[in-house]
Specification:
12-stranded parallel β-sheet, 358 residues, Leu-rich_rpt_Cys-con_subtyp, 10% strand, Leu-rich_rpt, 14 helices, alpha/beta
Length: 358
């Protein structure tokens, strides 16, 4: 009787408390959630009945991820999965995606987010297979894949019409043709990452800037081939909040002054934009008064004058300022801090030595 009483107490009090914690802890790792299934039959049943807990599958960096994913999607609890993360699951190949489509098609029809970052064995064929099975996909990420070409992007835009977040970072074999495809098919795109896509030119970027006016995040990190001809059209992105132009060696003050028309910018990375001077930064300070993060790392053409402008127009919002390597800035950092700190703490990085990650 005592054992039965304890079991009833467990079922009545402990299980609901566990469920309350699990349902409110959105960051609970997928593997921990799976481990909870083994605690007791009662908790197992309660967890399985909560469908919202089984809308994501996280196999990041796991071995044998392809077989694991097929096995998971074969279970009834994953019939409504919305997010699959295979980031750096390096054994994933096209054949696994083909098997998924053949065996788990019904489980993929509601998928909204697919992360294939670092899955370097996936080719254009794999993209064709998996995107044809996921018509409701909204977020697609395939960072660091040198096998993907314009053909893969053509399959993506043909099969998935709802993409709003696209990460093509490190896909070095896509060209302006891919950007034309994206621009023509994803006018509602909100986030685009083109880091190190070295074959792109002004022509392709302009297609994006002219047609994807809903962009809120644009990452052009380590792309030195673009010029002001394209940069000036960034001004068309009135909703833009995040812009990474690290290494934009051809960006001039004139181009930056056009970018300053993006009034909603909160994060701007100008690291190694070597042609920029005070004039460009002052234009940004005057136009982007909601700025929270600004990196001027490595720009030798800026001086204390730009700090004065940032103090005047952005001190109520700016929380991080990187002036590492800005040898033209002579002000003592205590003075810089006193200029910028008004309503909140501001981080100022200002060592004159080699760049360190911040």
């Amino acid at each position: 009787m005592e054992g039965e009483s304890e079991w009833k107490t467990w079922s009545r009090e402990t299980v609901p408390n566990v469920m309350r914690i699990v349902s409110t802890c959105t960051t609970l790792p997928h593997r921990d959630l799976f481990s909870l299934l083994l605690v007791s039959p009662c908790l197992h049943q309660s967890l399985l009945s909560c469908s919202s807990l089984w809308q994501g599958i996280d196999l990041r960096e796991m071995n044998n991820a392809g077989a694991r994913l097929v096995a998971a999607l074969s279970m009834s609890r994953y019939r409504h999965v919305k997010e699959i993360n295979l980031e750096f699951a390096q054994d994933i190949e096209d054949k696994h995606l083909e098997l998924l489509k053949a065996k788990c098609l019904d489980s993929l029809k509601n998928l909204e987010s697919l992360n294939l970052n670092g899955c370097q064995k996936i080719s254009d064929k794999g993209i064709e297979i998996i995107t044809s099975a996921c018509p409701t996909l909204k977020v697609f990420s395939i960072y660091w894949n040198v096998r993907v070409t314009d053909i893969g992007i053509q399959h993506l835009v043909k099969n998935c019409k709802r993409i709003v977040d696209l990460n093509l970072s490190g896909c070095k074999n896509i060209s302006d043709k891919s950007l034309q495809l994206v621009a023509d098919n994803y006018q509602e795109l909100e986030s685009l990452n083109l880091t190190r896509c070295v074959k792109l030119t002004d022509l392709g970027l302009q297609k994006i800037l002219l047609q994807c006016s809903s962009l809120r995040s644009l990452n052009l990190y380590a792309l030195s081939s673009f010029t002001d001809k394209a940069y000036k059209k960034i001004s068309l992105l009135t909703h833009l909040k995040f812009l990474d132009l690290c290494g934009a060696q051809n960006l001039s003050d004139e181009g930056l002054a056009c970018i300053a028309k993006c009034k909603n910018l909160v994060s701007l990375n100008l690291t190694w934009c070597v042609r920029i001077t005070d004039a460009g930064v002052i234009a940004i300070a005057q136009g982007c008064t909601s700025l929270e993060f600004l990196s001027l790392f490595g720009i030798v053409g800026v001086t204390d004058k730009c700090l004065e402008a940032l103090s005047k127009f952005c001190s109520n919002t700016l929380t991080t300022l990187d002036v590492n390597g800005c040898v033209g800035i002579k002000a003592d950092m205590n003075i810089v801090l006193s200029l910028l700190i008004i309503s909140k703490d501001t981080d100022v990085f200002a060592s004159r030595g080699p760049h360190q990650s911040t």
